[in-house]
Amino acid sequence: MKIPPAKTAVATPNIALIKYWGRRDSNLNLPFNSSLSMTLDYSLNTVTTVSFSDKIASHRMTIDGKVAPLDQRDEKLLKTGIVIDEMLRLGGYGKDMKVVIVSKNSFPGGAGIASSASGGAALVYALNESLDLELEPRELSILARKISGSACRSMFGGLVMWKRGRRKDGLDSYAEMIFDSSHWTDLVDVVAIVSEEKKSISSSEGHDITSSTSPLFKVRPKLAEHSISAAIDFVKRRDFQGLGEIVMRDSNNMHAAMMDSWPPIMYLRDPSREIIDGIEELNSDEGRIVAAYTFDAGPNPHILTQKSHLGKVETLLNKSRSVKKLLKSVTGRGPKITEEVLQL
Ligand code: DP6
Fold it and tell me: Does the C-beta of 16 come closer than 6 Å to ligand 1?
């Protein structure tokens, strides 16, 4: 059988402006609500090379030089193996064909930037190219979703919406670009690294704990759909005031439901709260919202702002003793194929 050519893809993380939390189907990563995100630029990236062999017994993966076994020890890695097999089948390859994956992140592991989103997107993108599948972006997004929900949004650049869908098979639960990366070039995301500790509860576990135990979570699905329509309208008009408020409120709402879970899930730490206070103070001094915080499943804030206010935001973050590093990004363009080949 012909061995497919090795290919390398680059994909970037995304920051959720209206969050995905809670899954109506945890095998397929089908969410209770739609979500909206900003894809980050190439300064934060995952590069993934896939190559092939029919002489080895199983797929092999390394992430940042460490072996990542595609088995049940880790939910996302197990799902990665399932998606690889599905794509090989689509390409007409049998069980003998195995994939060797070498993946490298430009940002520190545990930085609160989901490497599973950029990693999942880069892998699916590279496999589509190697196996010559010519799948539509929507189909690629569905495959990436099955690895990690938020990965389906990293399949596109710009401002991206993941539609929740209603079908049991998930065929209507995929991401779509709403505005391309040139729509709002002034928008900046600053990630402040306050902790690089691994979180005690993974997002995969957290989704299910919250949706099955939190009474507050019940209001989230409907609220999130409303917030998405409003947020899209603010982005359309490049209205930072409106967008900033809704982004902060959605992050607070998700973290409230997390804390309302049993056992409670608390991803925010003292430095996170210190930065929330700092942003509140900055906005109140300015008399309007010039910066907005949002947190995924971790303590590191993402601060959205506009280029004209970036200086003030950086000064504020650099003042905090807990901030170890700032990572800045504008809206990114989405995955691409590169010539670089990563070796084991
Ligand atoms: C808080 O995409 O990591 O970042 O589907 O289980 O892989 P799985 O979850 P994951 O969850 C991310 C949740 C979030 C919010 C978001 O990105 O929308």
Answer: yes
**Closest among 163, 263, 151, 161 to 206, alpha carbons compared:** 263
Distance 22 CA to ligand 1 centre (A): 9
Over range 84-113, report the average pLDDT. Answer: 90
Asked if residue 51 belongs to a domain, the reply is yes
Q: 296 CB less than 6 Å from ligand 1?
A: yes
Asked if residue 76 has its Cβ within 6 Å of ligand 1, the reply is: yes
Which amino acid appears at position 255 of this protein? H
**Reported pTM:** 0.97
Residues above pLDDT 70, as percent of the chain: 99
Out of 180, 203, 234, pick the residue that ends a domain.
180
- Mutation choice for ligand 1 from 142, 152, 164, 203, CB with most ligand atoms inside 8 A: 203
3-state helix, strand, coil in the chain (%, to 5): 40, 20, 40
Question: Both 199 and 55 in a single domain?
Answer: no
Domain shared by 30 and 173, yes or no:
yes
Q: Which is nearest to 6 in space by CA: 82, 86, 101, 106? A: 101
143 and 70 share a domain?
yes
For residue 108, pLDDT over 80 is answered with no
How many distinct structural domains can be found in the chain? 2
274 part of a folded domain = yes
Regarding whether 163 and 17 lie in a shared domain, the answer is yes
Q: pLDDT tens digits, residue range 246-267?
A: 999 999 999 999 999 999 999 9
What is the mean pLDDT of the segment spanning 278-291? 98
